Amino acid sequence: MTKAPSGNNPETTIPLNEVVISLYESAGKIYPRSVSGFFTQWRWVMIWLTQLFFYGVPWLEWGNRQALLFDLEAKRFYIFKLVLYPQDLIYLTAILIISALSLFLFTAIAGRLWCGYACPQTVYTEIFLWIEKKIEGDRAARMKLDAAGMSSKKLSRKVIKHFAWITFALWTGFTFVGYFTPIRELADAVVKLSLSPWEMFWVGFYGFATYGNAGFMREQVCKYMCPYARFQSAMFDDDTLIVTYDEARGEPRGGRSRKAEINSKSMGSCIDCSLCVQVCPTGIDIRDGLQYECIGCGACADVCDTVMDKMGYERGLVKYSTQNALTNSWSHHQMFMRILRPRVLIYSSVLLLLVVGLLASLWFRTPFRVDIMRDSAVMGRITEDGMLENVYRMQIMNGTEDTQHYRVSVEGLKGIAIDAKDSKEIQDKSDSNARVDENSPTFMVKPTESRWVIVALKIPDGSAESGSHKIQFSIEAVESKETITEKSVFLVPR
């Protein structure tokens, strides 16, 4: 106890009560209770769909390669038939914008659907909880096991559980790396214990992240680390479909026997069993109103419906609804009619335009790209046959998975032509894989290759004034008959 002087007499002291204020309250471990019901079944459907996609797609083949592969070393992204290069970053940007707008749209309509049903944190936490339940038992058994002292039984179950967790986590890390390294080659390297240092690091890193986030941090990631939980309220309004507790119907709450009538004791439908809290993966009480920790999984609605069935009461004390629907006692039809409100229509319209634009761009996308630069290291020069020559470096990127031939032509100056012979002589010294036909300036590029070729342009000396003259290259894919035009300049020295 601390004392302090009182009044004018320094010897007089009065006791001061010491108060310790904690800025952080450590949370206890949450033991979610098992639950079954409509929303739980849908959650497991989404778990199966997302995980079958994640673990299965890397093993699919398209032709003679992996169907979905982001080959960072070769700087090529294979998405089934589509082959993208770093120059196609605009498509990745469009996909990210579409994903963000989709999240905004779904949140405006039905709250945190992504968090409750498809977020990797939620999905893997549910999988790890399922493993834990199979090994350690239900909620009561797990709580009793953790509270008990160390024993051979407890140690064996903990070891088995963590072994299962680590095995699953490493499988997850292996699959993730399989999207960037051909997964069959990766599997062969694992069997032969010949993983490269980087492959070993990333498998371990993502495995450790899965093990830590889904096995230990769980709801802490949703509460404190996920930024979406913090700004979701900006996308909510009174017509957003969320998990809600019907306070007008449920209060005053209190325990009672199954035979008791609600009106006989002037009590609401809530029997205060706290099962809605016990099944919540983030440990909140939905009866306290909407909270940012709620991930919208609907587990509390499922367990409450079960209790209502046992008590003989109407379902829907905890349900998906909107604030306006609860306040105004709207029917389901009236509630769903409010979906098409201005915010949703704006999100939907912008999203539709972006999706249509992306699909149209991909549909009309030319399966090859060309970049042309005048070779600044080679000045305009007079050749032995009295022609003025400029040299250009041309990069041809073959976006198909077949060998292609590209015919090059040029226009813009009187008498301008491509010297196939000179181009071939220079090209043979720089790159033997991209060849020039002897009879025409046609270059061959292998499947999904990017090749630099050199083109020599000539005009009769004196046929053009000194200075910079605009010219235009036309590059035609011989097999597909598609053509790309690129602008450049021809320099005539003084």
> What is the gyration radius calculated from CA atoms?
34 Å
Structural class: alpha+beta
Global outline: elongated
What is the straight-line distance between the termini? Answer: 97 Å
> Helical element count?
17
Low-confidence stretches: 425-439
Mean pLDDT: 85
Largest sheet: 5 strands, antiparallel
| Fraction of helical residues | 40-55%
Our estimate of the beta-strand percent is: 15-25%
**Integer tally of domains:** 2
Give the strand tally.
18
Can you walk me through this structure?
This protein is 41% helix and 21% strand. A hairpin with a 2-residue loop joins β1 and β2. The protein is of the alpha+beta class and 494 residues long. Strands 10, 11, 12, 14 and 16 form a 5-stranded antiparallel sheet that branches. It has a 4-stranded antiparallel sheet with strand order 15-13-17-18, with no helix packed on it. The longest helix is centred in the N-terminal third of the chain and has 26 residues, at 152-177. It has 2 domains: 30-365, no CATH class; 368-492, Sandwich (Immunoglobulin-like).
Provide the fold topology.
Elements (H helix, E strand, L loop, with lengths): L1 E5 L2 E8 L21 H19 L4 E2 L2 E2 L1 E4 L4 E4 L2 E3 L4 H22 L2 H5 L2 H17 L2 H9 L4 H26 L5 H9 L5 H21 L1 H7 L2 H4 L10 E4 L1 H4 L24 H4 L20 H13 L6 E4 L1 H6 L3 H6 L4 H22 L4 E7 L6 E2 L4 E12 L5 E8 L5 E2 L1 H11 L11 E4 L4 E11 L6 E11 L5 E10 L2
Antiparallel strand pairs: 1-2, 3-4, 5-6, 6-7, 8-9, 10-12, 11-12, 12-16, 13-15, 13-17, 14-16, 17-18
Helix pairs in contact: 2-16, 4-6, 4-8, 6-8
